[in-house]
Specification:
alpha+beta; OB fold (Dihydrolipoamide Acetyltransferase, E2P); 2 domains; 5-stranded antiparallel sheet; 5-stranded mixed β-barrel
Length: 298
């Protein structure tokens, strides 16, 4: 029976994301959008368990269809002197949340005095008890689950991907999480399910936005748009679109339209029993339509 001990996990060595199937035929956009989804999920976990201390996710290709992801320190804060140790919890927390939310997957999660055991099939995953305790600090999982969902959706849309796996180390033969193609839809549905009665939720909509203001500066600077007659501000996180924009494949101007996926973060207002839109983020651009003529993203 294979045992994967994540008590030994070191964020400096990183973890492996493997895309099964025909790697030479997988669209480069598939890799980009899926890796971005995992990156954003990890950043959201870190922001909740490690506030005031940020990390960057470094991605490097190590073989056909496999990528190593490592957390690199990008800033320090005296508010959290234990951050160096806490960063080793981020990937194990991603694994725990994925299994916790994948309700139909046959597994058991056992908590003892010093470890947490996830038993799935003939594999046992060992997590330090401290990871389970950190899980209690992750109060809001909708953005985490939404980003994991987008990572899986990216591979589901590419027929050349047969499965998606996460490995704790390069030389491990058994993945810590394995999702075959025939379970992509099931996994996505279950991990995306959110409460509709309290807290925060994330919605994704395919929309058309008219550009009012473009911001080319680096960072999460917000563009301004008109959506259904309402002025909104939104960040743009689509890496392919931003790369093409910087290489001048698209000449953006006021009055242009973007057909895109819009991530909407909403908060529940109990006093009015209604969901209130709090922030917007463009996760994928399908088409740029210039004010005079139409241009389609390849």
């Amino acid at each position: 029976m294979p045992t994967i001990d994540l008590r030994e996990y070191d964020s400096e060595r990183g973890f492996i994301i493997h895309f099964g199937g025909k790697p030479r035929e997988i669209d480069a956009h598939t890799f980009a959008y899926s890796l971005l989804g995992f990156s954003e999920a990890l950043k959201e976990i870190n922001s909740q368990v490690n506030p005031g201390y940020s990390f960057e996710l470094k991605i490097e290709a190590i073989s056909e269809g496999s990528f190593r992801a490592t957390l690199r320190e990008s800033g320090k804060s005296l508010r959290n002197i234990f951050s160096a140790a806490v960063k080793n919890f981020v990937f194990p927390l991603l694994v725990l949340i994925a299994y916790d939310e994948w309700k139909s997957h046959e597994k058991s999660i056992e908590v003892s005095d010093d470890v947490v055991l996830i038993k799935t099939g003939d594999t046992t995953i060992v997590l330090p008890k401290s990871v389970f305790e950190q899980r209690e600090r992750v109060k809001e999982t909708s953005r985490i689950r939404g980003n994991i969902n987008r990572a899986v959706e990216a591979v589901e849309n590419d027929e050349n991907v047969t499965d998606l796996s996460l490995y704790s180390e390069l030389d491990k033969e058994t993945p810590v999480l394995h999702i075959p193609r025939d379970r992509f839809a099931e996994f996505k549905k279950e991990i995306a399910d959110v409460s509709t009665t309290e807290g925060t939720r994330v919605r994704d909509e395919r929309v058309s936005l008219v550009i009012l203001k473009v911001v080319f500066a680096k960072g999460n600077r917000k563009w301004e748009f008109v959506w259904n007659g309402i002025k909104i501000s939104a960040t743009v996180s689509d890496p392919i679109f931003l790369m093409e924009l910087l290489s001048r494949e698209h000449l953006i101007g006021n009055g242009d339209t973007l057909e895109c996926d819009l991530e909407i973060v909403q908060e529940w207002d109990s006093s009015q029993s209604v969901w209130i839109n709090k922030s917007y983020n463009i996760t994928k651009v399908y088409r740029h339509i210039a004010a005079e003529k139409q241009r389609t993203i390849k």
